[in-house]
Amino acid sequence: NAGITAATGDLIAFLDADDLWIPCKMSRQIAAFEASPECLMAYSDSLYFRETGIYSPPGLREDRRAGGDIFELLLVEGNIIPQLTVVARKQALVQIAADNGWDGPLDANPDVISSEDYGLWLDLAARGPAAYIPERLSWYRVMAGGLNLSHLERSHAASRSVMRRAISKPQAATVSRERIRERFAETWYEEGYEHMELGRPDAAARCFARSLATHPTTAAAKGLLRTSWLFIPALRPPPMGVADRGEDFVSFLRG
What is the pTM of this model? Predict the structure, then answer.
């Protein structure tokens, strides 16, 4: 926020210290603004890499990105915009800060920290169209050990807080309530999946259960069954011989 406020240019571009832009990134995006003066931001795809080489993050949604009016897309698909690819018009950012009474366009509320960029994209999308360049114009560095339990829980909770604020906007009135519930359920499922990756089946089971309660899906049911079977002692079948295992497993599934 301090940097955006101090900046004197017409465009603001985002880049964290450990990430990279390819040389033509800004020229491509400036050309997009010149071609579509009504656009408030431009973004692109990004390549992900780590020490061992190119990396494809789980749940990457490049195929769902688009330009134009993307408010509904962002609300029902989540934060599909890589932060390091965004260039935004400073005047739009200044107006967002003024309308919200903030020191800058990024919400500093602790409840949304780690998803404040997602909130900003929604605020921009609610005010005007975006330009999308389907090229990998940036390189995002995936740091070893970057995923930890406290960050995982905080980031998903922050994303849901941002979504709750977004659905109060007039632009959300036409968005299907059912699809919004689906998206909230997806966030719980995604959090559960990541807990499993970290070896936290107890936390994963709670997330899968919340996902099922919000909007039932086969994936969440399978996740809950998997965590319950493996890690909740009360639901484990008694030890058995190899010959009995098939029949007893069927009985266990039937309850």
Answer: 0.84
